[in-house]
């Protein structure tokens, strides 16, 4: 059984924990900032429906309970991208967990990239994934949404759609600073070309993320986006709200400033990430769920 969210309120502090790891203090926030009803008690377990807006129902999910990827829901991209090769071998499902492994073989850096494009696309709703990142310098993992027509109609993100980065996890920035316990939430629109691309972003500075299970969520409504960590709102924006259906992506990527003239995820380690069997650079996903109003 997948873990349910456990909410604890103590001395005005709301802490969101995983029921599977009850002693792991995930996150603290003032209780009056919590957006959903909470019980003033210790160890109160709330069903998923109690931390969702009224009327929202589960409409799509992957619990990764099979022994292989459900290709009726996901497609795996393959081929070169930035400084990595996207390969099907990087994606595996075992014991209820999807794993994307970043590894180096024969001098090439390999990783995984999957999406629901043309298989499941939706407009609005609450999107949530439970993820554990074990990231390494030069690489990052992400859970995000994108539109098939992103950038096709410059100046009209509502019609064209946008890229919504629910979480992008890195351990280093381009200056080598440790940011393993922070992550950006970002909305991109008007395509990716220099001079027309636009974006708005906010950083979440939280309790330990690297190597820890957390839920990352997005509530997308007709007038705004709300981003969540373990059920606690991190950021809200009304900019560039998409009004069209978008698909879900789970991926890891590798990039350094030498290729794209940017400094973002730090340097690739000398010698790379190790073989597929030896690599410890992984993004693990317990589930992905989508809730919508009828």
Order of helices and strands: EEEEEEEEEEEEEEEEHEEEEEEEHE
Give the CATH class of the largest domain.
Mainly Beta
Outline: globular
The biggest beta sheet is recorded as: 8 strands, antiparallel
The mean pLDDT is: 83
User: What radius of gyration results from the CA coordinates?
Assistant: 19 Å
Tell me what the CATH architecture of the largest domain is. Sandwich
Number of discrete helical segments: 2
Q: DSSP strand (E) fraction?
A: over 45%
| Count of structural domains | 2
| Structural class by secondary-structure content | mainly beta
End-to-end separation: 26 Å
What is the name of the CATH topology of the largest domain? Jelly Rolls
Which parts are unreliable, with pLDDT below 50 for 5 consecutive residues or more?
4-47
Helix content: under 10%
The number of distinct β-strands equals 24
